[in-house]
């Protein structure tokens, strides 16, 4: 007879305990973690070495933030039942919750060795493989899932997607065709959802074939997407005349889409740089202008004159000619274009024309044009007569009517014009004239703050930005501008209190973190780094890393959802965007700030803070030293008192929330145990931490100059430390 606590085959439970075990999975899925732990304890009371129950209890404790106990129990469970796929699956779920995806994949594969046809484990494995971009493994897993359950639509679509991502375009198209052959043709009784899914699948197939140099034609439910794809394919096939017709039709649908205009220019056999010379992509504008012949310019001018006649309200049709016209024609077209902005008081005019400043000749012509407009407004209060422009339609007579309000906007543009050209004194004179003309013009204060920032006067820039904020205390954007300026000027406390005006009381740090305000974290991190408050600087910079890791983690929500909803083109686009995630400029700013902080921590001598304080005290008199120590002691007492009050308040709130919400209280946010980042700054080897952060930057953004500079700085520090250790070792050898 088996002794008490023994389990037949080390796995089988009696009916009562087996029923409790089945409830564990449901309680895990419904987030009833505490009830699940109680049921697990009831089983373990009789069968303390039951591996699967130990593993499930560990999984439930992990959800209750008791990670050490969780890992210990799951490891015991795996040890007691090595051949249980449940134990290995749970072990993988634990690793996945801690974002240790490689270890989780190993556990899932071990689970599949025990149960080769477990669909749940396979689906979890496929999610991790696509998350880690293990494309060959993803393809293999999806093929197995399709073989096991070929009547599932999602398995077919996912298998085709796996081939597509692996570059097997023809195979992916054949898989989609094979699946379509098993589905009845769309009948009159089909609902709109099924029709949309069918349309999306066919469009996705067209996308696959487009990337693999093929075409597709079926019944489609996204006519605009079809027309865009047809235009791209015609252009890629060299059928320029047909592509021109296709892009003209698209421009008729949306006259303000600059991609359509770029496609039209490419269809007109213009150089590639010219096709990208719109206001949205002006990087190669000078090269485009040099590449255009007079014949091409004349043809483009005629095309856009025709477009303006067909679409008189199109802004793009009036703006695009400024990219390729030159000389008097450019001045006439610009004169016609800017008047509406001046008369209506549209502040974004300079932002719109800023790409034209890549050409020094056009920058000079724009300056002369606005000087002429401002001069006429100063003297007569009206705009001068419109210059003749053979490529533009006739202007309305209202532009010659009295328009004294346009003067301030002409001066506003000129101030930004001179600032862009580095003429700070002229820019300040003009923006002051704007403020004198209209003291309540908020945009003028913001522009003045930017001019002062570009001139290097951060203190004055912060003062002016704060003045702009006070003109409209309900404007969140102005608040953000003021906070950034205050951080740049080093006024960290004032910047923090200003930012807190738009956050919930007492929750500023959490509120800004939840809103993912990375501009705030980068700005505050730089300010604290300049003040050598390394802990606070690291705390801010590393929050940027947390945000981007959350963005990467958010992919999990879409791996299954997009397949179910058949949004395949958007899904592929999202995957490719995520592949470029860690090359984003904001990530580079945050991580480079953290790396510079670690480098400064490495360069700081041991006991640096104590030495700095000693040097400060050495320069004081005895009375000043006494006052300094008293002030420091009071500050420490105040911080200790505030920490105690905050802890007591937190305990009361936690108890009240737990009593009110029961199990929901488990989801309450944990209090930050290191709000000032002191533990982060106390790292033993700062250069090693910097090298860890740099590794990902070099993998995803190695083409950035800033990354190469950081690599040199970190590498030089590591090399110097290595040489120092070698020299010390040699000296010890010589002494011995």
From TrEMBL:
Pfam families: NatA_aux_su, TPR_8. Transmembrane segments: none annotated. PROSITE patterns: TPR. Residues 623-652, 660-674 have a biased composition (Basic and acidic residues). SUPFAM superfamilies: TPR-like. It comes from Chlorella variabilis (Green alga). Residues 381-400, 621-679 are annotated as: Disordered. InterPro entries: NatA_aux_su, TPR-like_helical_dom_sf, TPR_rpt. TPR repeats lie at residues 85-118. This is Uncharacterized protein. One of its GO terms (cellular component) is cytoplasm. Keywords: Repeat, TPR repeat.
